[in-house]
Design brief:
Layout (H helix, E strand, L loop, with lengths): L2 E5 L5 E5 L18 H11 L2 H7 L5 H14 L3 E2 L10 E2 L7 H8 L4 H7 L5 H21 L3
Antiparallel strand pairs: 1-2, 3-4
Helix pairs in contact: 3-6
């Protein structure tokens, strides 16, 4: 990722990541000209929502948190089906409870061990669940910050 020097609203120079080009009709935060894609770029590549909020003060913390949660819900790798494993969240198209993955990690095993023991679960779904967990932890931390 590359960065450039820019002058912020405060008049101070700072490094800013080179943001991806977005279409003119790309979804934007309500009441602003800031594309939602910028938040996700910061979150995925810079790993810092706080930097996004600093760089785009016209976007409220609540708007950013709502966008993070909506993005996480849009492509869930898990589902809860009544009558299947007592309705516990399972990896889609399996009977493997999502909590099993975290149990593996807490017991000192890694993702490869989990995938070997549960071949019906794809690596992509495990990675999506971990990213979802990261996003929700980050959202919760920002929700409780001043």
């Amino acid at each position: 990722m590359t960065s450039r020097n820019v002058t912020g609203l405060s008049g101070k120079e700072r490094f800013e990541p080179d943001l991806p080009k977005v279409k003119k009709d790309a979804p934007r935060f309500e009441g602003t000209d800031v594309p939602l894609a910028y938040l996700f770029f910061y979150q995925d590549d810079v790993h810092n929502v706080q930097a996004f909020l600093r760089d785009y003060p016209e976007v409220s913390k609540e708007q950013a948190l709502s966008a993070i949660v909506e993005r996480a819900r849009a492509d869930l790798p898990i589902e809860s089906v009544q009558g299947l494993v007592s309705g516990a969240p399972v990896f889609k198209e399996t009977r493997v409870m999502a909590e099993m993955l975290f149990g593996y990690f807490l017991s000192g095993y890694d993702m490869e061990d989990f995938l070997i023991d549960y071949p019906g679960v794809t690596k992509e779904r495990v990675e999506k669940l971990l990213l979802l967990a990261r996003d929700l932890v980050e959202a919760a931390a920002y929700e409780n910050s001043p």
